[in-house]
Amino acid sequence: MESEATQTSNPTDRKPYLSLIVPVYNDAGTLDTLVETLAQALGSVEQPSEIIIIDDGSKDGTADKLASLAEKYPTLVGIILTKNFGQHSALSAGLDYSRGEWIVFTDSDEAFHGDRLQLMMSKIEGDVMIVNGKLITRNQGLWRRFTSFLAELLLTRTLKGTLPTYLYTILLIHRRAVDVVRKMPERRRNIHGMFAWTGFPLVTVELERVSEFKRRSHYRYHQLLRMFLELITAFAYSPLFFPARVAYWLGFSAAIAACILLAAGELISDSLVGKSAAILNMLLFSLTFGFLGVIGAYIARINSQTRLRPLYLVLKVFGQNAPDGPQP
Predict the structure, then answer these.
(1) Which pTM was predicted?
(2) How would you class 19 by CB atoms within 10 Å of its CB: exposed for 0-12, middle for 13-18, buried for 19 or more?
């Protein structure tokens, strides 16, 4: 009778109501604080919950640290990938292994406290499937804030009509939306954009950023720029049409410039006219290769899609209540 009572009262023996997914990379130094903070946040949820941490090919002992923490926290599930597949592939692994009715995304460098979770869960009403957490206070420099604002503005303008809204890093998502995204066959993924594309009812809530981890972000500007371009090429076709529009105007302008240069040849020296023509040719040459680069970005996506390689490879999964494998 005692064992039966113990089994019944253990919340981890039941299917989780909430799955909290966090990808990590070289975070051995802050993993203790991260897991403790996440466990305290889930303590405010009365229903059974789980923490899923995906080690995306770390080189600093993160996997060993995660294994030791899994022995201490019964709700913790650790997933170790064979190499660094990227943030969105790691998030895809977390989705595949998650069992909760609601799923939360957050970053490893963001302190996710219980009050933040409660605020997001309080927005679940009616047909709401996605709660979009927007960070309103950023502990970043002026230049970083400006570039973030500019990137968001460009994404909103470029993806207008394609994505209903811009999704931020912290999300609370219903299982129905998760199952839809899991079935999408895309190989080069932007998970947040894919959830936005579904068009499920969502609500945006403002969250004040609170970071307890004194380290710089893993992402440098060139990596953020690459992610920005990936999102554009994944959900917008306007960059493909933009070169054609520019070509029309350049052709018209070049015709006018040719007439001006031809007429000017009668008034000024031939050397000056030749230099002007050379500058114009260099401009057209640079624009041509720039437009070819845009087309190449889309062709690269087609190439990746036709390879049909797996999104990720799992080395091992551990935890006191870890799933046997990906969910059906």
Answers:
(1) 0.75
(2) buried
Determine the Cα–Cα distance for residues 4 and 6; give it in Å rounded to an integer. Answer: 5
Per-residue pLDDT tens listing for the chain (328 residues)? 333 333 333 444 567 899 999 999 999 888 999 999 899 888 888 889 999 999 999 998 999 999 999 999 999 999 999 999 988 999 999 999 999 999 999 888 776 777 888 899 999 988 999 998 887 765 566 766 676 676 667 666 666 655 556 667 889 999 999 999 999 988 888 888 889 888 899 998 888 766 555 555 555 655 656 666 676 766 666 666 666 666 667 666 766 766 676 666 555 555 555 666 666 677 777 777 777 777 877 888 888 888 888 999 999 999 998 998 898 8
**What are the tokens at 168?**
């931020």
Q: Is the dihedral angle over the CA atoms 99, 104, 106, 111 positive or is it negative? A: negative
The whole-angstrom separation of Cα 74 and Cα 72 is: 6
CATH topology of domain 2-221+310-318: Spore Coat Polysaccharide Biosynthesis Protein SpsA; Chain A (3.90.550)
Distance, in Å, from the CA atom of 88 to the CA atom of 72, rounded to the nearest integer, reads 28
Domain locations in the chain as residue ranges: 2-221+310-318, 238-307
